[in-house]
Design brief:
Helix 2 links the parallel strand 2 and strand 3. This protein has 8 helices and 7 strands. The protein is an alpha/beta fold. A 7-stranded parallel β-sheet has the order 3-2-1-4-5-6-7, with helices on both faces.
């Protein structure tokens, strides 16, 4: 059983989807949780209530991870309100999906600012606190199978996730001496609210049937993998990439 008692986890982009599932799964394992959100405050509040219903403490903190000052303030708030930090899940993302010939510099920049640089801001800000605390810790980056699959129409997102993977490995190499483990999870096609901005319900059902496992994944399935990697059960795992995709990449090799 995963045991995260006496730990505090900060999850970015945690009001909905994979981030919210991670926050709740951490609470089930005994951790207190900082729920970051940029929009959807009502969802963030209900996520806090769900964590508290499991007997753990939770706070919701609004911050755009592309804003370094806001990220630093959020990390300080976490320490002030919950007393410590042990875990970061860098999950927040933006994705402007347009063909290469049509995407604007603004769309490209916004995706990179949130999905790649936002993860950097959160990781560096939290890591500096972890080093000061001298208790080690764990960071998990939520990447994607887009990191190695050149999905057409997703140039900005593909680029951000590919960069995230290499960034995570580099951070892992530098944080070993501080006993901060850094790992990456690559979800496949997951059934999240964000997918409905680009795909209808019927299209999602039909697309899921064509995947190797015959369906889309769920946020909870990703969250369980993330919780494991951030727990003492994964003490000897750092610099790893765990694909949680139902064999998505296997289908691509047919």
């Amino acid at each position: 059983m995963i045991n995260l008692l006496n730990s505090v986890a900060l999850v970015t982009g945690a009001s909905r989807g994979i981030g919210r599932a991670c926050a709740v799964e951490f609470a089930r394992a005994g951790a207190d949780v900082v729920i970051n959100y940029r929009s959807h405050p009502e969802d963030a509040d209900s996520a806090v209530a769900e964590v508290e219903a499991l007997g753990r403490r939770a706070i919701a903190v609004q911050a755009d991870v592309a804003d370094r000052a806001a990220v630093d303030a959020m990390v300080d708030r976490a320490l002030t309100d919950l007393g410590r930090l042990d875990i970061l899940v860098a999950n927040a993302y933006a994705s402007v999906r347009e063909p290469f010939l049509d995407i604007t510099p603004e769309g490209m920049s916004r995706t990179l600012d949130v999905s790649l640089l936002g993860a950097f801001h959160a990781a560096q800000s939290v890591s500096r606190k972890l080093v000061t605390q001298k208790r080690g810790g764990a960071i998990c980056f939520i990447s994607s199978v887009h990191a190695f699959t050149p999905v057409a129409g997703s140039l900005a997102y593909n680029t951000a996730k590919a960069g995230m993977n290499h960034m995570a490995a580099t951070i892992a190499a530098e944080m070993v001496d501080h006993r901060v483990r850094v790992n990456t999870v690559e979800p496949g096609w997951i059934d999240t609210p964000g997918e409905r901005a680009f795909t209808s319900e019927d299209e999602l059902v039909e697309a899921g049937k064509k995947l190797a496992w015959g369906r889309l994944g769920t946020p909870d399935e990703v969250a369980r993998a993330v919780t494991f990697l951030c727990s003492p059960a994964a003490e000897y795992i750092t610099g790893a990439v765990l694909r949680v995709d139902g064999g998505y990449w296997l289908k691509k090799t047919e």
